[in-house]
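Exam revision sheet. Question 4 asks you to relate a sequence to its structure. Input first:
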Amino acid sequence: LSSSSAASDVYKRQALQARQDHDWQCILSLSLDLRDPRLRALCDLFLQKFGELFRRTAAARRNHHARRGGLVEHVAQMQRVADSLCALYPEWNRDLLLAGVLFHDCGKLWENSYPKEGFQQTHSLRGELLGHIPLGIEVVNALWRELMQSETSASWRDLEPASEEVRLHLLHLIASHHGQYEFGSPTLPRSPEACLLYTSDAADEEDS
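Answer key, structure tokens:
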């Protein structure tokens, strides 16, 4: 019985790893398949800098996707939902929504990550004192500044909407994704993309 149970556990771990590997490839594909060069570059820079940490971060400490790699599962599923719905509602900003899904919980890299070796989540002082929403805004602003100081940004000056507007809308998706003030959102969803992100985020939290 114990041998059978151990074999079952190994199979489950292998199946989970395979699913997370597939989800990671989904994130890479959707996050880098954006027409807006600013958002595509932002996603690329984030994934290059923090991809390894991302892959070992949980989406939560309990309740949903509370395991190593859980954030990958959560983000991939939300991106698939967003991509499918944007095909039905082309007036929605697909690029903004997919980038918003990628970044909405990025502050959790400092709240719910696992060490390279080990089985317990590590909690940083930044994560404990600030929380993942302010941290996510901080991360996006830092990466955005880095991109805007690059030579590539010169080719973005005449793009519409303006870069500052794109940045603000992306920050809004992060800030409003809990949907209600009592759930920790500093603001409420005020765009179709923000409403969809909040709804799909809440729906995917049904996982246990």
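Marking note for examiners. The mean pLDDT is 90.
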